[in-house]
Amino acid sequence: METLVLFFTRLHVPSLVTGAAGAALLLLTGCLTVYTRMSRRNLGLTIRLDQAARNIRGLEETLHRLRAERDELRLQLRKTTEMMTAQQTELDNSRRLLREREKLFTTVRDQMRRDFELLAGRVLQQQGKELGLRHESGLQSLLEPMRKQLADFQTRVEDVYDKKSRDHAALVREIELLRELNQQLSNDALHLTQALQGKNKIQGQWGEMILERLLEDSGLRKGREFETQQGMRNEDGRLRQPDVIVHLPDKRDIIIDAKVSLKAWTQAAHEEDEKKRQQLLKHHLDSLRNHIKGLSGKAYHRLPGVNTVDFVLLFMPAEGAFQAAVSLQPDLLTAAMRKKIVLAGPSTLLAVLRTIH
Fold it and tell me: What is the pTM of this model?
């Protein structure tokens, strides 16, 4: 631009021409200035346009990635919804099974209560009569439906447990219901014991009957694996008649006595006055101690012809009576062991026999 201006300045033309040329030169200079500015602005816009294009491509890539993530989240949401639906269905099924089990427990418990009430009524009617073969057969017919119901109940519980072993809440509920059922059985046994407490002979026969049924239900056979009321004489020639002799597989025997008195305990269980109840429980403990002392003096474990262990099992047919005595004297089991006597209730008898074996 400076070269062009210098060129026009050096021309030797008339002044008029020179003025026109100057104007033209100024116009040209202005145009060039505008052109230069526009070129610079256009270059800036081009650079900004390129930058915007790159930004758009980056945004498009981000949009594509976000869409892919959105699709993945939708897929996960669908899978989660399907899984929750399946779990809800399984939960509904578990609740339905739980309601069925509760209904089954209630039915069995009510039936067992009726059976025990019927049994107590029959026993009261037959007090004073000879407890012979017909009486035993009658008790068997009364207990058989209950035994079948218990077997069916156990089978159903095992089936449910096998199918729903992971259903912890239902399992806890089943255990609680079993505990309630066991408590109901203990209460019913208590009522039956109360009905029999008036006569020691009948009470002893009832204890023997409970013991015999427990052994039979465990698979032992009368006349084979155990004997009842087998008379034999000791070294002094005195007649001894143990309630039950169980024959162990290793040709050893164990003698079980079931004639413990529960009269004071049943009276205590129905006594509302706490002071009197504690006195009756103490009488119950004293009666049990005396029975242990008398049983130890008989030395059943030294009877000739019996290959027995060096102690005798004392069976208490009511679990509550056993627990009440131990709670009053915590070292009762140890004290009895020193006299060669081992105490056992319905829930511990079979475990003690297995431990001895």
Answer: 0.46
The count of other CB atoms within 10 Å of the CB of residue 8 is 14
Q: What domains are there in the chain, each with its CATH number? A: 223-357 (3.40.1350)
CA-wise closest residue to 312 among 325, 322, 299, 303: 299
pLDDT in tens, 260-305: 888 888 888 888 899 999 999 999 999 999 999 988 888 777 777 7
Which residues, other chains included, contact 205 with Cβ-Cβ below 8 Å and sequence gap of 6+? Answer: 131
What is the H or E stretch that residue 304 is in?
none
* One-character DSSP codes across 108-170: HHHHHHHHHHHHHHHHHHTTTS---HHHHHHHHHHHHHHHHHHHHHHHHHHHHHHHTTT-HHH
Burial pattern 269-297, b for ≥16 Cβ within 10 A else e, equals beeeeeeeeeebbebbbebbbebbeebbe
Secondary structure (3-state) at 240: strand
Q: How many residues does the chain have?
A: 357
Kind and range of the H or E run holding 21: helix 15-125
Strand partners, 312: 341
Query: What does DSSP assign to residue 302?
Result: G
Rounded to whole angstroms, the Cα distance separating 158 from 102 reads: 15
CA 220 vs. chain centroid, Å, equals 30
Amino acid making up residue 38: M
The pLDDT of residue 212 is 85
DSSP 247-301: E-TTS-EEEEE-----HHHHHHHT---HHHHHHHHHHHHHHHHHHHHHHHHHTGG
Rounded-to-integer distance, Cα 288 and Cα 282, Å:
10
CA–CA separation, 357 and 77 (whole Å): 60
Cα distance between residue 226 and residue 3, in whole Å: 138
Give dist(CA 286, CA 263) in Å, integer: 12
Q: How far apart are CA 118 and CA 138, in angstroms?
A: 12
